[in-house]
Amino acid sequence: MAKSIPRISSRKDGRLRSRKTVRKILKGVIHVQASFHNTIVTVTDVRGRVVYWSSAGTSGFKGTQRGTPFAAQTAAKNAIRTVMNQGMLRAEVLIKGPGLGRDAALRAIRRSGILLTFVRDVTPMPHNGCRPPKKRRV
User: Fold this and answer.
1) Where does the protein end up (predicted)?
2) Model pLDDT, residue 118
3) Are 74 and 107 in contact (CB under 8 A)?
4) 34 — phi, psi (to 5°)?
5) Are 90 and 113 in contact (CB under 8 A)?
6) What pLDDT was estimated at residue 44?
7) pTM to 2 decimals?
8) Residues of the chain with pLDDT under 70
9) Is 8 helix (H, G, I), strand (E, B) or coil?
10) How many CA atoms lie within 13 A of 131 on its CB side?
11) DSSP 8-state assignment for residue 131
């Protein structure tokens, strides 16, 4: 009878637990990126490593519904609920973009019970912008 070949793991340290370890995060940064078509809420720790993220698309909204304030509120609730279970108590909020979900996401974050140290708008603004296209000749 043929001898069976032992399975060799590709992991060097031989760990078998999942990579998603539950970290205790007391303070973090909540980034809200609100475009006209979607709203993305990313929660990072103070060093900038992503802890959890959620968007209107992953919250179950498709098509034009993703750009609505309700979809942004739902995405923010999903992200906040997860990080509050990991122990987050205080956070800073950075909001970027011109979308409709800006205010709704901020309102959902305020209602969650996390103590906000500051709220900052980091939307990039051009200081004169790109050169316009040349004048049209007909």
Assistant:
1) Plastid
2) 93
3) no
4) -110, 105
5) no
6) 95
7) 0.78
8) 1-2, 6-22
9) coil
10) 3
11) P
Going by C-alpha positions, the residue among 22, 25, 49, 28 that lies closest to residue 93 is: 28
How many angstroms separate the CA atoms of 30 and 106, rounded? 10
**How far, in Å, CA of 126 to CA of 115, rounded?**
32
| Cα of 71 vs its chain's centroid, Å | 14
* Integer Cα distance of 14 and 10 in angstroms: 8
CB within 8 Å of 80: residues ≥ 6 apart: 30, 43, 108, 109, 112, 114
Domains in the chain: ranges and CATH: 27-100+107-121 (3.30.420.80)
Q: Would strands 90-96 and 115-121 be described as parallel, antiparallel, or unpaired?
A: parallel
> Comparing C-alpha atoms, which of 70, 63, 59, 64 is closest to residue 104?
70
